[in-house]
Amino acid sequence: SQTIHQWPATLVQPVGSPLSLECTVEGTSNPNLYWYRQAAGRGLQLLFYSVGIGQISSEVPQNLSASRPQDRQFILSSKKLLLSDSGFYLCAGALLASNEQFFGPGTRLTVL
Amino acid sequence: GENVEQHPSTLSVQEGDSAVIKCTYSDSASNYFPWYKQELGKGPQLIIDIRSNVGEKKDQRIAVTLNKTAKHFSLHITETQPEDSAVYFCAASTVGFRANTGNQFYFGTGTSLTVIP
Question: What are the C-alpha distances in Å from B11 to residues A43, A83, B7, B108?
């Protein structure tokens, strides 16, 4: 079965500091990968998705960026965090054949 | 693009009763409709899905129905239990690999289900 690993589980960062959230996939190859942000426990906002190594599509213009240096690794970054970047960040993968999407456990980010 | 609407936003039922959550979608090209359950502080978990060539699918106490003509699909939970309490999300997507765009998932805004013991 497929598993998404995310870390850290929680993170508190000051405004203006950099960010790096990592996501790795286990149990499948060449998945589509996604970063979502969820505010107040409701509503999933798609931030980035990737169909392959080095291929990133951005859905929402903001101060975040994403990279996919390896097939099963997806990284969300920021050079300078804003207060509005606080939220619950979810990494997800989707199997190409079935389109089934599976989520990681999430990272709770608080920007102070 | 696709637009998915979900109702109700909150739902309270007595233990043992049934719960129904409804979603509508706008893009007739969507052909894959998953439902997710999210417990507090955790990532969403896929609980059931349905594809456009099927009108209904059942898995124990959970069932999903799809009406392609009307572009709506529903989640039915029977004999609800307190552990069913969570936020439920519907989504719509298109199966099939797109070389340049990938497969995007469009989510409803979620339903907070409370099962009262």
Answer: 16, 32, 9, 15
